[in-house]
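To the wet lab folks,

You asked to see what we're planning to order before we commit. Fair enough. Below is the target structure as tokens, and below that is the sequence we designed to fit it. If anything looks off to you, flag it before the synthesis order goes out.
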């Protein structure tokens, strides 16, 4: 069931997303060579709790941490560990928070020190594809128009869209209907309506689209070992079009 949210509920979803956005803003300055993934996770959890919220991922389906941190060929769902970041890596940080019964969910991919032009382009194109998808989230369009816009943009650079994982509705649950794939033909399936809240989250591989789940049961990695990037915003569909609820200060 796809829920339609009132302006009051959208304000509550926005409040949770603003905590997520400020967590990601805060983390950016700590993403440096030598920092451990566990340190980043602790910083995030402390900040989220200081805002009267709780980390939405911790304990979700048994996930052990507050952030999903995915490095280079890890696509999503990486578990923070003691390993440290190294210059030249790219790191996807996915963050969720629940406040007053409403959820926020957003992700960004960051460079660690200097990264190759190829990785810079992968991040820039993936981020741009998120905004191409968001542009389609207007009342009367179809949910598949979002994925079609994402896929068309990234495939024009020779990149590929992960099929196994998709965006989603969000509100009083972290994951709600509808599913929001990042690929597909336009004008299919559900019509978008004012009051729907969606987490749109392209996961884009520099190489081929195939992924697998590592032996830890969580981390999704590219089969060919090429890097992957992930950007995510939670949006509300309003009468005049999409409004991003998870915009930070550092990233418009
Ligand atoms: Mg997320
Ligand atoms: Mg999500």
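Sequence we intend to order:
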């Amino acid at each position: 069931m796809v829920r339609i949210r009132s302006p009051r509920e959208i304000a509550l979803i926005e409040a949770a997303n603003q905590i997520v956005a400020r967590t990601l803003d805060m983390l950016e300055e700590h993403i440096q060579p030598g920092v451990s993934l566990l340190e980043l996770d602790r910083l995030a959890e402390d900040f989220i709790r200081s805002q009267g919220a709780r980390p939405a991922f911790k304990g979700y389906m048994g996930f052990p941490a507050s952030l999903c941190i995915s490095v280079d060929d890890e696509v999503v769902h990486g578990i923070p560990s003691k390993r440290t970041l190294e210059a030249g890596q790219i790191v996807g940080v996915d963050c969720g928070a629940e406040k007053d019964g409403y959820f926020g969910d957003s992700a960004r991919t960051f460079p660690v020190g200097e990264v190759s032009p190829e990785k810079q382009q992968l991040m820039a194109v993936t981020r741009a594809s998120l905004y191409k998808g968001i542009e389609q989230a207007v009342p009367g369009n179809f949910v598949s128009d979002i994925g079609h816009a994402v896929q068309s943009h990234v495939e024009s650079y020779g990149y590929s869209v992960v099929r196994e994982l998709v965006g989603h509705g969000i509100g009083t649950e972290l994951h709600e209907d509808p599913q929001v794939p990042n690929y597909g033909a336009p004008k299919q399936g559900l019509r978008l309506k004012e009051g729907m809240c969606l987490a749109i989250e392209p996961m884009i591989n520099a190489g081929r689209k195939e992924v697998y789940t590592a032996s830890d049961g969580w981390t999704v990695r590219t089969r060919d070992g090429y890097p992957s990037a992930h950007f995510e915003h939670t949006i509300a569909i309003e009468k005049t079009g999409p409004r991003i609820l998870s915009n930070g200060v550092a990233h418009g």
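Structural context that might help your review: The longest strand covers residues 90-99. The chain has one domain: 7-244.

Thanks,
Computational group
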